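Let's practice the habit of predicting before peeking. Look at the sequence and jot down your guess about where helices and strands might fall. Then scroll down.
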Amino acid sequence: MTARVFFYVQHLLGIGHLRRAATLARAMAAGGFDVLLVSGGAPTEGLALDGVRFHQLPPLRAADARLKDLAQLDGTPLDDAFRAERTRRLVDLLRVESPDVLMTEQFPFGRTRLRFELLPLLEAARDLPSSPWIVSSVRDVVRRSASAERVEEAVATFRMFDALLIHADPALVRFDESFAAWNDVKARALYTGYVAEQDPVRAPRGDAGKGEVIVSAGGGAVGAPLLYAAIAARPMTPLADRCWRLLVGPNVPPADRAALAKAAAPGIVVEPARADFPTLLRNAALSISQAGYNTVIETLCHADRAVLVPFGTARETEQADRARLLVQRGMVAGVPPDSLTPASLAAAVTAAWAGPSIRSFPPVDARGGAATVAALRQMVAP
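Done guessing? Here is the structure:
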């Protein structure tokens, strides 16, 4: 009988968490698992789900870019009735599925504001006639700003889990660099390598983007300032004579789309985000982007030189930490959060252009999908 995986994911602001979960779910499905991807965020068009079943919970999102409070899609704060109904649906779905593996994306090392439904989900899983393997699937970096109380809570909740799969390359970024209580969880932890949307070896070839500067901001929910800064920075860089291609994600507001197109000087192309992003990166002279998980992995796998401009707040340290660690290793140049200006971006472009190529470093381990499948197979083996 085919082993079943129940994979919970919640994206709050951008779509990066959902994209990575979908990539991982496709790998598991291709590896012979029956996968149900359960999403609690806003519905997203164009999500690749080859071979993966999908269930949409009543959606919620972050109330604003601070990611402190939750809201319904129309901005209405969550109330007890909404929480109770969503929890009921989630637990009922788990009982119907009766999976061999329950996988939570980030929790309990993140997404702690979803405890109202995730703790009942874990309890329900333990009460099933045949209890599933309970697995936490996390990125390379978690929120370092979590309080000591939250770290202790994560460790306590992790006692309900059987395994921690860290989708990272420890030669590049180690989980203990952002999670203070590593010694309390490492016995059940496994590094899989990064989860890449596209196999770098099999990525399609072509000349698109040759010699250009590619500027991207993921889904674009908080990326417009980077795109505006790139337009203003271009004349101050040694790449002012190159074509700069600005990729506008689906979450950039229409008013900003129009303003960016109007502000673009000759030699600057403003267009929607493209499916051939890896090809653009491979051919580009330089990449400028935020520091979300998916974009950084694509950059490390394909780009020659790069500048990372992480999104960050006092609470959200993930992108800033990821960028800082890669800058410290000399692989990229960066602009810290709250330091973005046309001048600071131009200085980072100049430093990246004068620095070493990413390709001069050992290749990043991006075989996280295959390694995850292998780990799960070992868990469910008779």
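How did you do? The chain has eleven helices and 15 strands.
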